[in-house]
Every structure is written in C-alpha cells, then in structure tokens.
Specification:
This is HTH-type transcriptional regulator SarZ. Keywords: DNA-binding, Transcription, Transcription regulation. It is found in: Cytoplasm. Belongs to the SarZ family. InterPro entries: HTH_MarR-typ, Transc_reg_Sar_Rot_HTH, WH-like_DNA-bd_sf, WH_DNA-bd_sf. The chain has about 160 residues and is mainly alpha-helical. The chain has two domains: about 90 residues, Winged helix-like DNA-binding domain superfamily/Winged helix DNA-binding domain (Arc Repressor Mutant, subunit A, Orthogonal Bundle); about 35 residues. It is about 70% helix and about 5% strand. The chain is built from seven helices and two strands, in the order ααααββααα. The protein has a two-stranded antiparallel sheet with strand order 1-2. Strand 1 and strand 2 form a beta hairpin. The two termini are about 35 Å apart.
C-alpha cells in the first residue's frame, strides 16, 4: 500500500474507532461520574499494573504533570488514595478508595452486558484486533521517537 493512502486510511479508521469506543464506553463510565481514562486508572490500580504516578504515565502515555493532576482530582472525588513515598517524597503511590472499588464493580457489571455480542465473535478476531493495535502502537512509538529526536527533546514518561 502506498504510504499516502496508508496515512489517510489510518487517520479515518482511528477516528472512527475512537468515535465507536466513546459511544460504547462513555455512557457506562459517565454514569459513575468518571471518564474512560479515569476508569482505566481504577482498573490499572485493581489489576496492579498501576501503583504510582510514574506507572500511570507508562500505562497511559500521559505526561507526569497531567497524570499527577488527574490523580489529585480523583482523590478529591474519593476514587483513589495518594500517599507520598517514605523514602522518596517524589514518589506518589496510589491505591483504590472504597468509592473507586464500588464504581469499578458497577462499571464491570454494566460492561458484561456486551458479553452477549462478544461471544458471537470468533476468537481469532480478538487476536487480530489486539495484534493490529500492538502494531499501530509500535508504528506510532517510532514516529514519536523520531519527533523527539528531531526536536532534540526527550519524552516525559
């Protein structure tokens, strides 16, 4: 495929996918007073893939300042707890608060309603989607690294 056509198709497909994801996910998470990103933070905390602001940056691609502000907001709203590290005060550890656990439990139950649809899809489609997303992320990481090298800068997380 010609690079120009690839770029144009990717732009269209990513925008359409983003729209579909928002239409499917936003009503579920917004009913709990959360954004999709905030729900993903709670899920990361529950699964143990996120335990501090730095790991949140790596899991989401957010910058340190944005991740820190998001966590402060979520703490104010009672979804998570933040604590400064005892050995290094720059490290802010995160954990689920009761409100976050409850909201996440309700969100998961609501998303289970989609299982009726998902069970009709062949498993190889899931593998193809995940493989395609991983490939897209790799391409985009290379583009971002090129941008940073071209600017002489460094990435924040």
């Amino acid at each position: 495929m010609e690079l120009r056509l690839f770029r144009e198709q990717v732009l269209r497909d990513i925008q359409l996918t983003k729209t579909y994801m928002e239409k499917a996910m936003d009503p579920v998470v917004q009913s709990e007073g959360l954004t999709v990103l905030q729900a993903l933070v709670l899920l990361g905390l529950e699964q143990g893939t996120v335990d501090n602001v730095s790991s949140l940056c790596h899991a989401t691609g957010m910058g340190q300042a944005n991740a820190s502000n998001l966590c402060k907001k979520m703490e104010r709203e009672g979804f998570l707890l933040r604590a400064r590290g005892k050995e290094d005060a720059r490290v802010v550890t995160l954990q689920l608060a009761d409100r976050g656990k409850d909201a996440l439990s309700r969100i998961k139950k609501k998303f289970q309603a989609y299982d009726a649809v998902l069970q009709t899809i062949p498993p190889e489609k899931f593998d193809a989607v995940l493989g395609g997303i991983a490939a897209a992320q790799e391409i985009l990481r290379r583009i971002l690294a090129y941008q940073q090298a071209d600017k002489g800068g460094t990435q924040s997380c």
